[in-house]
Amino acid sequence: RTSSRKIKRRFVKLHISVALETKMILVGIPSKGWKGDHQFGLRMLDHLRRTMRRSGFEVERVIADAGYLSRVMATEIETLGGEPSIRLKSNTTAKAGSHPAYRRMVLRAKRDPDEFQKMYCYRVVIEGIISALKSLFGHRVASRKRHNQDVEILCRLILWNYGRLELA
User: Fold this and answer.
1) Cα(2)–Cα(69) distance, rounded to whole angstroms?
2) Spatial contact of 66 and 87, defined as CB atoms under 8 Å apart
């Protein structure tokens, strides 16, 4: 009680979409650390859809961890023309309701887990990029205001992509 006032730590989570060939970040969305991933995954897909219209590239596959697992997400990925490869949770069933893309993804992952792992193993590339971002820029954000934290993180992503262009 007599000690100095403790500062509550607030976390910022970064959701990124990466082109595996170039290792460039296509979409980056910062969020509060305690918010669920699913809603930001759908926002990333919306940004990708707009980027696809402008640049003309196509999505072959979307690899995501279990935080993004949902029926709507699998359906949205297939409407983009890609194949969903989302890590399944231990209690995942193939009950899809009105989302056949989700059912196809779950059955494909459960029938042939080795083939699914071959696709999902590229998730290591994304984790490596996140690790490289942290080692290059540090794992802390200097800004105190929430808006400025988001801007700082997005500036780091721009610098990352600029560095990738320099390497090419």
Assistant:
1) 46
2) yes
| Angstrom distance (rounded) from CA 132 to CA 160 | 9
Average pLDDT, 10 consecutive residues per value, the chain (168 residues): 64 90 91 86 93 86 92 94 93 91 94 92 91 93 91 95 83
Give the Cα separation of 125 and 153 in Å (integer).
20
Helix (H) or strand (E) run with residue 167 in it:
helix 146-167
Q: What DSSP character marks residue 7?
A: P
Q: Which H or E run includes 75?
A: helix 71-79
Q: State both tokens at 144.
A: 């105190």
pTM of the model: 0.84
C-alpha to C-alpha distance for 121 and 117, rounded to whole angstroms: 6
